[in-house]
């Protein structure tokens, strides 16, 4: 499970901001959102199944999601970059000191009741620092620490149990943009596969408005797809979308993408000739039976709901962390609430999957505990800060959404004067 994530000097986040999934001991509300943690170093804590981010447009909500996505990208792909390729680097650009300073990321997570603490900082040309610790007992154990010494040389500190990792040091010196964790996974280094696989595979990212015909076909294909399709049909039958069935359709890729042949080499065409293009077909009830539609016949809102619902079902099946930017984009709040509630239900969420989302609909706050609501604010210097609603005094008799809309917690847009500026008042 995701326990904590910190980011510094990335996008609009200048100073280190930390988001914690550790449940506050001061709130006894909505215990269905908490899971007792059995990992050493966290045994007295409960972990939250969801975290939400609210704030004005351009306040930095998306930056939090992007930072987590960026960390995953580094872990998955940095070792595979060509030697002359730079790392994606997006520091805070509104003051000179931070433009050249490294971006830094820290993440705490658990795998099979083992806690891992991982951190990395980098510029475009090199990784500056990378460290991994684990807790199998109450004390931390260093797995590796890669850093730059005072002379600018890379050092790799290893414990005796990790000494076999020394063989990749030459690779890292020749390719300073590669993470240790990324290269170790390429080498199949077993002691690091558990933390690598969690970051690389258990962090999932959903884009509701980017679902199209090809998005659902692979999801619905195969034996595992049967379960997802069955659950999706159960959900949409209660969502008033008019859809009564979903099925997968396969056709030759080159037939589907007609006209692309003249743009490809003969070698590429040969590779693609037998490749299937899988799409989803949506069945609607009709007066004389049923009618099938491709995604082009469905509304943006319908596709957004089906996309997020499918991603949620897969995350729930796998016990993964699902990150959704603007979960309420193109969706009615009632549908969004149903998706959120799936993660709270212990019968549906048996593997303790987690949901991290950004939103603009204040009423969604009322589905959550105070320590699950985070508020983003962009200040006059352009820097984003992230605060927990649990830091504020919320009246027990007041809905969180009401206090937020009244501006009691900040993180709302200042729009005074927009109308008058247009009418000349």
TrEMBL record:
It comes from Collinsella intestinalis. The lineage of its organism: Bacteria, Bacillati, Actinomycetota, Coriobacteriia, Coriobacteriales. It holds the Pfam family AAA_21. The keyword Transmembrane does not apply. Transmembrane segments: none annotated. PANTHER family: ATPASE AAA-TYPE CORE DOMAIN-CONTAINING PROTEIN, ATPASE-LIKE PROTEIN. GO terms for molecular function: ATP binding; ATP hydrolysis activity. This is ATP-binding protein. Keywords: ATP-binding, Nucleotide-binding. The keyword Nucleotide-binding applies. Residues 53-366 form the ATPase AAA-type core domain.
């Amino acid at each position: 499970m995701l326990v904590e994530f910190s980011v510094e000097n990335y996008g609009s986040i200048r100073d280190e901001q930390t988001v914690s999934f550790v449940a506050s001991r001061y709130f006894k509300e909505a215990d269905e959102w908490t899971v007792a943690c059995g990992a050493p170093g966290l045994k007295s804590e409960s972990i939250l199944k969801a975290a939400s981010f609210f704030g004005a447009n351009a306040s930095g909500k998306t930056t939090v999601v992007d930072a987590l996505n960026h960390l995953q990208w580094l872990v998955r792909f940095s070792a595979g970059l060509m030697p002359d390729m730079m790392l994606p680097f997006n520091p805070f650009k509104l003051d000179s000191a931070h433009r050249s300073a490294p971006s830094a990321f820290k993440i705490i997570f658990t795998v099979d009741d083992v806690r891992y603490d991982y951190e990395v900082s980098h510029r475009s040309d090199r990784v500056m620092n990378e460290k991994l610790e684990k807790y199998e007992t109450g004390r931390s154990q260093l797995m590796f620490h890669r850093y730059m010494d005072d002379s600018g040389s890379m050092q790799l500190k290893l414990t005796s149990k990790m000494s076999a990792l020394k063989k990749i040091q030459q690779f890292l010196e020749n390719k300073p943009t590669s993470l240790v964790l990324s290269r170790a996974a390429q080498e199949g280094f077993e002691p690091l596969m558990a933390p690598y696989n969690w970051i690389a595979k258990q962090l999932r990212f959903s884009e509701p408005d980017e679902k199209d015909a090809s998005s659902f076909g692979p999801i619905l294909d195969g034996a595992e797809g049967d379960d997802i399709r069955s659950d999706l049909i159960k959900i949409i039958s209660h969502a008033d979308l008019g859809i009564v069935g979903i099925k997968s359709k396969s056709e030759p890729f080159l037939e589907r993408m007609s006209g692309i042949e003249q743009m490809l080499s003969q070698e590429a065409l040969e590779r693609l000739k037998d490749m299937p293009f899988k799409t989803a077909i949506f069945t609607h009830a009709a007066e004389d039976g049923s009618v099938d539609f491709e995604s082009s016949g469905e509304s943006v809102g319908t596709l957004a709901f089906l996309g997020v619902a499918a991603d949620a079902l897969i995350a729930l099946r796998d016990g993964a962390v699902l990150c959704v930017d603007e979960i309420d984009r193109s969706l009615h709040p009632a549908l969004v609430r149903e998706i959120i509630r799936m993660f709270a239900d212990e019968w549906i969420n048996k593997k303790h999957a987690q949901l991290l989302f950004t939103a603009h609909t204040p009423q969604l706050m009322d589905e959550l505990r105070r320590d699950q609501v985070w508020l983003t604010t962009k200040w006059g210097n352009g820097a984003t800060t992230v605060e927990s609603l649990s830091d504020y005094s919320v009246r027990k008799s007041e809905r969180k959404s009401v206090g937020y809309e009244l501006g009691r917690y900040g993180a709302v847009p200042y729009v005074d004067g927009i109308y008058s500026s247009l009418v000349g008042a």
